[in-house]
Amino acid sequence: MNLQSTWAIAINTFRETVRDRVLYAFVVFAIIFTLAGILLGSLSVEQNVRVLEDIGMFTISTIGGVIAIFVGTNLVYKELDKRTIYLIFTKPISRRQFILGKFLGLALCIACVTLLMGGFLIVVSLISGEKFTALGPLLGSLGLLYLELLLVIALACFFSTFATPLMSVIFTLALWLCGHLGQSLLALSKMSSNETIKPLFYGLYQALPDLAKLTQLRFELISQAHRFDVPTMLVITGYVIAYIVLLLSFATVITERREFN
């Protein structure tokens, strides 16, 4: 694979995304929402920092996810709409390089957004009385959050290869939400007495990424109820990366089957 071509597409995607004014509106909204968390935190006795960090992480996750969905679902469609994809594929660039470059470009943009909002949250937490020793778990939680956002980008990128932006948004948002309801699907499969519905719920639980565990570990790290367990982090990281690779592989296959002549 020509990494230079892939990186060129990634940088171009990053620049296009950063120029989008909507991106800055989301970041400003996240900062305002975090500041609101300071006010809410001050209303709770001896829990102001915890409330602030919980609200801050929720805000970063939501804003990052929304950006990943609305930008990611236009990755391929925008190139088709502007007919620039025809020019791209006249050059020695494979469909795999195109998909990977688009994914990396948006992933780089989301990394910058996560670092910006996460850095702001850390500064506000320190000002609010958080200890420096608690920054490790907070950084680990931010890392897990970014891992989840990478999966959302991969989902959006996959659906953008064959669906309209509106349908891609619906599909990606639905799977993202369902990923957080994995334990509920498992519980429904155990509770259901219908032999047809039971395997359906269980099959959905097995097929969908269990993002609920990722969220649970994030908040356990923040509350320091769970120590920084390297093996657990590696397992979860490998689990999510496997889904990302699978989604990007499917996106590549779909793109290769399409004619852009």
Number-wise, the strands total 0
Oligomer: single chain
What is the count of distinct domains?
A: 1
Shape: globular
Structural class: mainly alpha
- Mean pLDDT value: 78
- Give the ordered list of helices and strands: HHHHHHHHHHHH
Give an overview in words.
It is a single chain. This protein is an all-alpha fold and 261 residues long. The chain has helices at residues 3-18, 21-42, 48-72, 75-81, 84-88, 95-127, 135-160, 165-179, 182-191, 197-207, 211-222, 230-257. 80% of the residues lie in helices and 0% in strands. It has one domain (3-257).
What attributes does this structure have?
261 residues, mainly alpha, 0% strand
Helix-strand layout with pairing:
Blueprint: H1 3-18, H2 21-42, H3 48-72, H4 75-81, H5 84-88, H6 95-127, H7 135-160, H8 165-179, H9 182-191, H10 197-207, H11 211-222, H12 230-257
Helix pairs in contact: 1-6, 2-3, 2-6, 3-6, 3-7, 6-7, 6-12, 7-8, 7-11, 7-12, 9-10
Q: Brief description of this entry?
A:
This protein is mostly helical and 261 residues long.
